[in-house]
């Protein structure tokens, strides 16, 4: 039986009960034990930035630098450097985070993406049953959906999560410039790898992943992780580019996204459904327009 949305309290003056919900939400990326928090409560950016988080099992500590909480396995490492595949590394560059909403994202319209406002509405329709719960915008980029989700007031908390430090910094910059003093609302910025989500199992009501599946190093590990963190009845909504037809095999005829990210994971629709089903998600549904697909699946 599907469970009710998670109980992160909507009030800004959080109770002890809501604090413990939040402690149970964030987990250590190494062992998945819930993190112990020292600092002001609340899934609010300023409160998270003033808190430190400890794992009592592996004695690791995590804290915020540059206004996002780094919950990657490599957080705080001084010597070890790991280079991820191009779909991840490309977006860590500062020029990508700078141009992303200033032209790059607009180009997606050529391939059937209806644009952020319409994509947001479509996602909100799929997320109806999760209203009042916690939403994680995985691979949020510069926050064009996370900010809309948080501003909608539909959720008790929104986590904007990305692996790219520069995308998170850009997101913070957009928040700072928001005339509605938006920083005080229920939105936090977390750096993490989609294949190692820093949330306890069955703690999240809704996961959104806009235009991201094709960038992930391992979509199967990512969807498995998303399934693990969703509560029973929780919803996963994603958008991506479908693979172009084999007739356009020459590089010059390939869509821009496939030329920029030639090693990206572009799938046919039945592959995406197969992936969701193999991770145990049900009630798959989708809408397709040219190369654009928005799909939804539910944790039973
Ligand atoms: C094309 S952008 C999508 C941004 C936004 N969600 C949108 O709809 O426009 C893809 C995002 O995936 C992120 N990404 C790539 N690899 C990732 C990983 N391993 N874990 C988390 N995010 C990742 C990138 O940093 C980038 O911000």
Automatic annotation (TrEMBL):
Catalytic activity, EC: 2.1.1.163
Keywords: Chloroplast, Methyltransferase, Plastid, Transferase, Transit peptide
SUPFAM superfamilies tied to this protein: S-adenosyl-L-methionine-dependent methyltransferases
Main location: plastid
CDD domains, A to Z: AdoMet_MTases
Keyword Disulfide bond: no
Top-level division of the source organism's lineage: Eukaryota
Residues in Methyltransferase type domain copies: 136-237
GO biological process: methylation
Signal peptide: none
Pfam families: Methyltransf_11
Database matches in Gene3D superfamilies: Vaccinia Virus protein VP39
A GO cellular-component term linked to this record: plastoglobule
Region named Disordered: 1-20
GO molecular function: demethylmenaquinone methyltransferase activity; S-adenosylmethionine-dependent methyltransferase activity
Cellular compartments annotated: Plastid, Chloroplast, Plastoglobule
PANTHER family according to UniProt: METHYLTRANSFERASE, OS06G0646000 PROTEIN
Family per record: Belongs to the methyltransferase superfamily.
Protein name: Putative demethylmenaquinone methyltransferase
